[in-house]
Specification:
- By secondary structure, the protein is α+β, with helices and mostly antiparallel strands.
- It has helices spanning 12-22, 40-60, 73-78, 80-86, 112-122, 168-189, 236-240, 267-276, 306-325, 340-349, 360-365, 386-411, 422-427, 440-449, and strands at residues 26-28, 36-38, 63-64, 70-72, 91-96, 99-107, 131-140, 155-165, 195-198, 210-218, 223-234, 244-246, 254-256, 258-265, 293-297, 330-332, 354-358, 367-372, 378-382, 413-415, 431-436, 471-476, 500-505.
- Bound molecules: the ligand O=C(C[C@H]1NCCC[C@H]1O)Cn1cnc2c(c1=O)CCCC2 and magnesium ion.
- Ligand 87C is lined by residues 86, 89, 109-110, 141, 160, 205, 229, 231, 261-263.
Length: 508
Amino acid sequence: IIGITVSKQDNFSQWYQEVVLKAEMIEYYNEISGFFIMRPATMYIWNVIRKWFTAEIEALGVDETNFPMFLSAKSLEKEKDHVEGFAPELAWVTKAGDKNLEVPVAVRPTSEAVMYPYYAKWIRSHRDLPFRLNQWNSVVRWEAKQTTPFLRAREFLWQEGHTAHLTEKLAGEEVLQILELYARIYEEILAVPVVRGKKTENEKFAGGYYTTTVEGYIPSNGRGIQGATSHCLGQNFSKMFDITVEDPAEKGKHINVWQNSWGLSTRVIGVMVMIHGDDKGLVLPPRISKIQVIIVPVGITKSVTEEVKASHAAQLQDIKKTLLSAGVRTDEDQREGYTPAWKFNDWELKGVPLRIEFGPKDAAKEVVSYARRDTGEKGTIPIAEIGTKVPELLETIQKDLYTKAKASFDEHRVVVEDWEKVTPALDAKNVVLIPFCQEPKCEDKIKDLTTTKHDESPDASVPQAPSMGMKSLCIPFEQPKQLAEGTKCLNPECQATAQSYVMFGRSY
Ligand SMILES: O=C(C[C@H]1NCCC[C@H]1O)Cn1cnc2c(c1=O)CCCC2
Ligand SMILES: [Mg+2]
């Protein structure tokens, strides 16, 4: 069968690999492991996001740039404090042709070290602030862990924004502006709900000051997933790279600028696939679907007269034209030698949000028959009304996909104030909101305490599969409720006062 051979419920990771392959989004790059080919279906989605985000940040005054993809060990030295953290992931070029390079160069895993020496050169006066550049590119991180399309690849597409501001307050405002754009990409374009919040010390970008994040939730396995990040770097990098301006308030005095960096990657596509897909394959929100409506001719049997066939064909073209002029991305499937049923399966596999079946019987009643990809609901629409009813139906599909995913996330994001209830909650595919002291050491302990080791006890009838411990996902800006005065951190081995509710979960 061309379709998906496993159920999403029974074998989520194989289901996911099959969907991205059979929906023609991805091809494995067999030459080198950890790399994937992104095909037109993927690039269409990425380009919708890129067009929307580009327009939004241009309106904010961000300009586009493009820096080289290589960086020297020298400039890496400058940010040595957090280089050792990620040295293992760096890919190096050591030869050109048959000659060794005098100085090996690294492929960018991110571009701070590439860009900031030039920020130091270009940013002189406070009049140069706010200084804001963004680039769309790919970066390479030689992941040691198992890779998977979109979610963890050794090279991925992203955008990286890098800005400089006069004050912490101005930088902080932009951090949240960008985070909200990221949230809108998820919620309005991909129909994926996210929780906005701040990363804990353990989970923030080590080189930065603080990290804000949008966190997703995968119902199939109850795991959290980081969706995109907007960091305030503070003055850490401007001190490393000597990016200063004259203090407008005090002649001769120089101040280090306050910087932000923010990134969203093709991981967002994997999140969308995992949340909306089903056992028939991909389910695409209309906003990002290259084909929003596929028209499949039906009922053209041998008994149909030439005359009926001709008028049916002409009417089908009229239907297509009407939809196209109503702004609906429409196509028709006239492939010879394939049954309508085969075509239905193929377009369902590819996630097309709305199918229109049109046959002589429909023509006679002056209607089209439709089938929604998300719910499977079928119905008819008078041909005279398709110019308005079909766009409305696509909007409904977009909204319903979001509403369904939101309900699932809300239902599986639970406040837990009894330590004994944490693991059962995780095992029931929840992420938890717990009173937490926010101490890094305590967070390490919580991860350890919630990691169920392989159950060696001989009497274990079914050996307990080891399950990963829970990590902090974020400190939600929107707290579930007021933390009662004097509430203790939920970690039984910690006696500190809880600072807030923090969202924890097993995660990607
Ligand atoms: O990339 C960032 C910070 C920042 N980079 C620019 C876009 C936004 C934001 O992700 C953090 N970071 C994450 N992961 C890695 C690195 C790294 O700096 C560098 C080496 C490889 C692994
Ligand atoms: Mg990483």
